[in-house]
Amino acid sequence: MSEETLTNLSREERTFAPPADLAASANVTAEAYDAAAGDSEVFWAEAAERLSWDQTWERVLDWDNPPFAKWFVGGRLNAAYNCVDRHVEAGNGDRVAFHWVGEPADDKRTITYSDLQAEVSRAANALVDLGVKAGDRVAIYMPMIPETVVAMLACARLGAPHTVVFGGFSSDALASRLVDCGAKVVITSDGGYRRGSASALKPAVDEARAKASGEGFDVEHVLVVRRTGQEVSWDDAVDVWWHDVVDNASAEHDCEFFDSEHPLYVMYTSGTTGKPKGILHTTGGYLTGTSYTHNAVFDLKPETDVYWCTADVGWVTGHSYMVYGPLANGATQVMYEGTPDAPHRGRWWEIIADYGVTIFYTAPTAIRTFMKQGREIPDGFDLSSLRLLGSVGESINPEAYMWYREVVGGERCPIVDTWWQTETGQIMISPLPGVTAGKPGSAMTPMPGIEVDVVNDDGESVPNGSGGYLVIKEPWPAMLRTLWGDDDRFKETYWARFRKLGYYFAGDGAKRDDDGDIWLLGRVDDVMNVSGHRLSTTEIESALVSHPKVAEAAVVGAADETTGQAVCAFVILRDSAGDGGADIVEELRKHVQKEIGAIAKPRQILVVPELPKTRSGKIMRRLLKDVAEHREVGDVTTLADGAVMDLISKGVSSGKAAD
Ligand code: ATP
Ligand code: MG
Fold first, then answer.
1. What is the 486 CA–ligand 2 centroid distance (Å)?
2. pLDDT score for 631
3. What is the C-alpha separation between 570 and 553, in angstroms, rounded?
4. Ligand 1 atom closest to Cα of 276?
5. Running DSSP on this structure, what letter comes out for residue 599?
6. Which range among 34-38, 265-269, 633-637 shows the weakest confidence by mean pLDDT?
7. Taking burial as the number of CB atoms within 10 A of a residue's CB, which of 59, 352, 477, 506 is the most buried?
8. Positive or negative, the Cα torsion across 61, 508, 370, 21?
């Protein structure tokens, strides 16, 4: 039997050096690694000094009671002041904070840092009038409109932790989060525009509020932004219009400064693996970690860059790399309300061309969707303003990386593949664009100041060329502090597996290649055991995606009498491949065998029109496993599109499959 923790199947020879001009003027150079290795507390203290503190800290890190960390102990600051006011005070009030683009054509707004300061202050004053004080929780259930960012910053300004719930979630998901974190106020809108039409949000809040009441928990107020103008039902005792209370509030608000460890927000994870966890982030360390990494990884030049992160604000990426990191750095951003295909499939590329976007940060799932549609669509737009591309959320398959590099990046833009989690708060593993020669599919190296390792079952480092568990060995500033109201689950979930060594276990498998660079291999829960070999999902999926007819793939292990488990694959074909032809299944099985070996050859391949994904675009493999093992499909409440599983199950019973 194989001894290995995770089998290393694939090889990659291509590398791309940083562009010379970017390297010459990079915000962060190779020296940062040495500085951080020398004394990481000094390194992080310097990163924290990039922020404005009302009172400086007495101690950088308190790790006396692991796994409960405290960063910048005794320091006091205000997150909203750091993201907004200080830029205005520095004379940059006229700089654009957001170029906001609504989904309906010609629906646009430009918001400067001065505008943002006035609006955040008004909203903060309005929330105070509604009874919100430091420590109260506020839920935000909104579309991608400027008021959403304003609402988050207004909460931060008051020291009232927010919990943003993705606008696509059901009233059940909202209700459970309202109850779990005890939200006093909900901020929402009548609706938002998605896929060309107005979709309602307020009715789900009404339902969620009723459900929460049924469980003995009452929300005090619902603050409603008018976005679409659709009709809403109204409860005078609870509901208030944003335009009544915010627009009429004073644009002056003196902010209070809070302890560095004051809670900033609770974010529920996307729920790929089960019941969502309420991740708690606090203020000083989180803002330090996100603003430092945003500056380093995206090489932001705030005077000239136009930065666009496509993530929904209901996801941690929207928090760390659309709100807190970039705003702390004084960035000019694009924020877009709708979907990439409304009103036409080139909408994103059109926005890049219109605003001269220079830095673009998106998810592999989006890139693969564009690959599916074909390059003619982006080729129709001028993307020459772009200088740097980022990826987050899943491993980027080498083929998708090459497509992103060539078609979107015109072969001149470096790609930063950033590995991190809701829990880590900040980017942990990524190339530095002015330093690292990138490899398609690899997140490369830990960020300066971050101690990551790939270890075996006993917690020992694996040698280069081998796979294992990804762990983080030292605390970092933006780390989660606990799970909301559940310290035991926090310890059990992240710190139990390597308790003696004190490692944080991320739940992901990874390998080191022959150069020691890190490749993410997917969740260890998804590892398949085929004839004693432990196979991870990512490499087999990447092998499938490297076939010219395939755009996306998901693999799972299904029980098998002979091999223990067998590889089952679900693939989406590129539009140009039509139905793939009669032999598509055999062709793909052979392709996997040729690319990475017979052991990984799928027993079964199903061609499907869609894959089940979370709101953040992650494939939910546990649902596919249910299908592959002919079980009833499990909990689908965090699926982006509930109908997808029906489509797949139908496909399975009509059977374009081979055994
Ligand atoms: P839950 O923990 O509830 O299942 P989730 O893990 O999907 O939800 P997130 O915190 O949004 O919620 O996702 C973090 C995970 O996303 C990582 O653990 C990793 O599996 C994956 N991931 C993120 N970025 C990358 C990347 N660049 N390469 C590979 N995987 C990535
Ligand atoms: Mg997770």
1. 16
2. 86
3. 6
4. 3
5. G
6. 633-637
7. 477
8. positive
DSSP state string for 419-438: B--TTT-S--B---TTTPPB
Class of domain 536-658 (CATH, top level): alpha beta
Measure the N-to-C terminal CA separation of the chain; round to a whole number of Å.
Answer: 25
In the chain, where does the domain assigned CATH 3.40.50.980 lie?
109-256
Report the nearest-CA residue for atom 23 of ligand 1: 393
494: number of Cβ within 10 Å: 23
Ligand 1 atom 30 nearest Cα: 394
Q: Is position 487 annotated in a ligand binding site?
A: no
| Distance between CA atoms of residues 182 and 179, nearest Å | 5
- Residue 419, annotated as binding a ligand: yes
pLDDT digits (tens, 9 = 90+) for 571-623: 999 999 999 999 999 999 999 999 999 999 999 999 999 999 987 788 999 99
Task: Please tell me the distance between residue 393's alpha carbon and the centre of ligand 1 in angstroms.
Answer: 5
The ranges of the chain annotated as CATH 3.30.300.30 are: 536-658
The CATH architecture assigned to 109-256 reads 3-Layer(aba) Sandwich (3.40)
Q: Which atom of ligand 1 is nearest to the CA of 273?
A: 4
Share of the chain above pLDDT 70, in %: 97
Provide the 8-state DSSP code for 46: H
Q: What is the DSSP string of 156-189?
A: HHHT--EEE--TTS-HHHHHHHHHHHTEEEEEEE
The atom of ligand 1 lying closest to the CA of 423 is: 10
Q: How far is CA 490 from CA 173, 262, 271, in A?
A: 21, 18, 15
In whole angstroms, give the CA distance from residue 438 to residue 242: 46
**pTM of model > 0.90:** yes
Strand partners of residue 520: 510
User: Three-state secondary structure along 96-158?
Assistant: EEEEEECCCCCCEEEEEHHHHHHHHHHHHHHHHHCCCCCCCEEEEECCCCHHHHHHHHHHHHH
- Segment 35-64, tens digit of pLDDT: 999 999 999 999 999 999 999 999 999 999
Residue 579 DSSP label: T
CATH topology of domain 20-77+268-520: Rossmann fold (3.40.50)
> Which of these, 480, 459, 477, lies nearest to 469 by C-alpha position?
459
Name the residue with the closest Cα to ligand 1, atom 19.
394
- Residue 224: CA count within 13 A, CB half-sphere: 25
Q: Name the residue with the closest Cα to ligand 1, atom 14.
A: 421
Q: Is 253 annotated as a binding residue?
A: no
| CA-closest candidate to residue 547, choices 583, 513, 512 | 583
Task: Indicate the SS3 state at residue 453.
Answer: strand
Hunting for tokens 């470096």 — which residue is that? Answer: 414
Please check if 317 is assigned to a binding site. Answer: yes
Q: How far apart are CA 138 and CA 233, in angstroms?
A: 21
